[in-house]
Structures are given as C-alpha cells and as structure tokens.
Amino acid sequence: MASEPVNVSEFQELARQALPKMYYDFYAGGAEDQQTLEENVKAFHRIIIRPRILVDVSRVDMSTTILGYNTSAPIMVAPTALHKLAHPEVATARAAAACGTIMALSFTSMCTVEEVASSCNAVRFFQLYVYKKREISALMVQRAERNGFKAIILTADTPRLGRREADIKNKMISPQLKNLEGLVSTEVHTDKGSNMEAFASRTLDASLCWKDIGWLKSITSLPILIKGILTREDAIKAVEVGVAGIVVSNHGARQLDYSPATITVLEEVILAVRGRIPVLFDGGVRRGTDIFKALALGARAVMIGRPIIYGLAAKGEDGVRRVLSMLKDELELTMALSGCCSVKDITRRHVMTEQDRLH
Ligand code: FNR
C-alpha cells in the first residue's frame, strides 16, 4: 500500500504485510468457522443512523467519564494479549495516554505491569484471568493495585480457550509472558497444534463461577468489571453480585463461534441493567459510526481490540496513536452530521436496528 492509511481497515492490511503469518493469524483470527468474527463487524452494517438536522454543531465534545475517570472520548483500549510479537505493550500504553484514552492491560501481556505503569502517567485498568493456582491471580491483582491500576476487568468467557484453527495449523508458539515470569512456566511442548491452547488449558481455572466474585472482592478494593456478558440473565446476575460494571463482549469472536454478534445483544443487556451499573462494549468496532451506534444503544464506552494491534504492528506507538485519532475523528464527524454536540445527546432515537424495522 503506497499511500498512507486513511481508515482502520487499511491499517489491518499494513499489519498483515508487516507480521509473520503465525502472528498475524493469531491476532486476526477467530474461533472455528469464524461466523461470529464476521458477524461482529457485519451486524454494525445493518444498523442505520437517523441524523437530526439544523442543530448547532459548531462545537462537538466527545469527552465522558468511565468509572468516574475523565476520558477524551468514549473509547478504550481493550485488553489484548502478546503485543510484543508486534511491538511492546509500553508503546500501546504511551499512545493511549497521549490520546487521553484508558488502556486495559492484558493479564497475558509480554511487558510487566510495573513496566507499563512506569512508562507514562495515565489511568489504566488491569484485565484478570483466574488461574487454577489462584494465588497467581491474587498476586497479579495486588501488583496491579500497587502500581496504580484503577479497576480489575475479570474476563469471564474463557474457562477454556476457544478453538482457533489458524493457531492449531501454525502451531502457534507460547511466548515468554514477562508479566508472569517466575509465577508460571510458559514452556509447553505439544506437536498437536497450538501451544497457546496447551498453555491455557494447563493454567485457566475452568471451575470459576459466580460465587468467586466474592473471593475477588475480598482480595482487592478496586472496582471490578465482568467482561464477556452476552445475555440479560448474566447481566442481571452481575448487578446482583454487586460489580462496578460489565463489558458486553464475545472476546472478539475468539471463544464460542455462533455466539451472537455483540452489537445485536447490547440493547438486551442495557434493558436488563436499567442504568444500575455502566455497560461497556466491544467487538467489531472499526468505524466512528460503529461507536456512535453502540452509544445510541446504551453503551457507556467501547473498547477497541484488533485495530489497536494493527496500528501497533504497522507503525508502533505512532500507529496506535493514529488508529485512536482516526476513530475519534470519525466519531466526532458522525456526531456533527447526526446533530449531537455531546455524548449525552446521542440517544436511542438516533439509530434504527433490524428489530426496529420488523416492528
Ligand atoms: C483478545 N481479547 C482478550 N481479552 C481478554 O480479556 N484478555 C486477553 O488477553 C485478550 N487477548 C486478546 C488477544 C487478541 C489478539 C485479540 C484479537 C483479542 C479480546 C479483546 O479484549 C476484545 O474483547 C476483542 O478484541 C474485541 O473485538 P475486536 O475489537 O478485536 O473486534
């Protein structure tokens, strides 16, 4: 691609060219038939924006708060593993900070929480996996807390790793996870397929359940968000166990294929939660219009997964900055062209879903 990328999809192509196939496939891939992977993006295309005209939009303010923390726009960096296969996590952290964006650091990051914390001053959240050896997860929570992370995002959709066939074919390596150095060995030797999968099945605690939220609360004073909610039933349970927020997510379609595209279940969750806790959203966000649609359906903010990695792989820290800036610019323009001066102005009446068209 000779010219500079003008949108997130073009960054994806640059990343594909820049990365070894094994790593690109790991980042880009989804589970099994990748039906949900495709739908996560396509379901956005079926939602139509209802713009309002003759509104004074000479000033558009995208700023908002997430768990009480100010952010330049309703956009966050989703927790994604293994940035250093492309570029170290500290680069992502610096870019997020420069854009006034909250980053969620993955438990399975290749830089340590300490390295990320000392890379620059910013509000950051820490994503948690619960391991069979609970003391490892507890220690990571303490380290995140000690290093100024402001919330714990418990990923609850991964009792086992989804079946990612590209990783199986490529015999995806299980890289050094500096964050977990000394706590767990990433040495796995399987000639059967994905070493990541073998590592995950050795470590992840498949017995994790709702009562364990009590345990997590007992070991941290940080607010807890549950990531991976896709149904009203689980949204209600999350409110009942008293977490600070939830993330509507299907893990970027990397876990259960044929689980719903996240944007199609957002409203169900919003209606169940009834404003009692904030609802974040991720999956398939590639445009400012996608962010606008998620906000119109009730999300407090969206998290961006793959596009951040594509920016990172293509152009390092600057690439992440540019991806975030592109999405922010696109959202700002969408707001202006829809007659919304602030995120509070974006309402349910600004979008028409497939459901709406049926009724
Ligand atoms: C992820 N995701 C993820 N989630 C999590 O809770 N912990 C993790 O370590 C990871 N790792 C990870 C790696 C890669 C390469 C991807 C693509 C995704 C899921 C992530 O947080 C988020 O839910 C999705 O990425 C959102 O979908 P999009 O934006 O990638 O479409």
From TrEMBL:
<dbReference type="InterPro" id="IPR000262">
    <property type="entry name" value="FMN-dep_DH"/>
</dbReference>
<feature type="binding site">
    <location>
        <begin position="305"/>
        <end position="306"/>
    </location>
    <ligand>
        <name>FMN</name>
    </ligand>
</feature>
<dbReference type="InterPro" id="IPR037396">
    <property type="entry name" value="FMN_HAD"/>
</dbReference>
<keyword id="KW-0560">Oxidoreductase</keyword>
<dbReference type="InterPro" id="IPR008259">
    <property type="entry name" value="FMN_hydac_DH_AS"/>
</dbReference>
<feature type="binding site">
    <location>
        <position position="249"/>
    </location>
    <ligand>
        <name>FMN</name>
    </ligand>
</feature>
<feature type="domain" description="FMN hydroxy acid dehydrogenase">
    <location>
        <begin position="1"/>
        <end position="356"/>
    </location>
</feature>
<dbReference type="GO" id="GO:0010181">
    <property type="term" value="F:FMN binding"/>
</dbReference>
<dbReference type="GO" id="GO:0042742">
    <property type="term" value="P:defense response to bacterium"/>
</dbReference>
<keyword id="KW-0288">FMN</keyword>
<feature type="binding site">
    <location>
        <begin position="79"/>
        <end position="81"/>
    </location>
    <ligand>
        <name>FMN</name>
    </ligand>
</feature>
<protein>
    <recommendedName>
        <fullName>(S)-2-hydroxy-acid oxidase</fullName>
        <ecNumber>1.1.3.15</ecNumber>
    </recommendedName>
</protein>
<feature type="binding site">
    <location>
        <position position="106"/>
    </location>
    <ligand>
        <name>FMN</name>
    </ligand>
</feature>
<keyword id="KW-0285">Flavoprotein</keyword>
<feature type="binding site">
    <location>
        <position position="129"/>
    </location>
    <ligand>
        <name>glyoxylate</name>
    </ligand>
</feature>
<dbReference type="Pfam" id="PF01070">
    <property type="entry name" value="FMN_dh"/>
</dbReference>
<feature type="binding site">
    <location>
        <position position="251"/>
    </location>
    <ligand>
        <name>glyoxylate</name>
    </ligand>
</feature>
<dbReference type="GO" id="GO:0005777">
    <property type="term" value="C:peroxisome"/>
</dbReference>
<dbReference type="InterPro" id="IPR013785">
    <property type="entry name" value="Aldolase_TIM"/>
</dbReference>
<feature type="binding site">
    <location>
        <position position="164"/>
    </location>
    <ligand>
        <name>glyoxylate</name>
    </ligand>
</feature>
<comment type="similarity">
    <text>Belongs to the FMN-dependent alpha-hydroxy acid dehydrogenase family.</text>
</comment>
<dbReference type="GO" id="GO:0050665">
    <property type="term" value="P:hydrogen peroxide biosynthetic process"/>
</dbReference>
<feature type="binding site">
    <location>
        <position position="254"/>
    </location>
    <ligand>
        <name>glyoxylate</name>
    </ligand>
</feature>
<feature type="binding site">
    <location>
        <position position="155"/>
    </location>
    <ligand>
        <name>FMN</name>
    </ligand>
</feature>
<feature type="binding site">
    <location>
        <begin position="282"/>
        <end position="286"/>
    </location>
    <ligand>
        <name>FMN</name>
    </ligand>
</feature>
<keyword id="KW-0576">Peroxisome</keyword>
<dbReference type="GO" id="GO:0003973">
    <property type="term" value="F:(S)-2-hydroxy-acid oxidase activity"/>
</dbReference>
<feature type="active site" description="Proton acceptor">
    <location>
        <position position="251"/>
    </location>
</feature>
<feature type="binding site">
    <location>
        <position position="127"/>
    </location>
    <ligand>
        <name>FMN</name>
    </ligand>
</feature>
<dbReference type="InterPro" id="IPR012133">
    <property type="entry name" value="Alpha-hydoxy_acid_DH_FMN"/>
</dbReference>
<feature type="binding site">
    <location>
        <position position="227"/>
    </location>
    <ligand>
        <name>FMN</name>
    </ligand>
</feature>
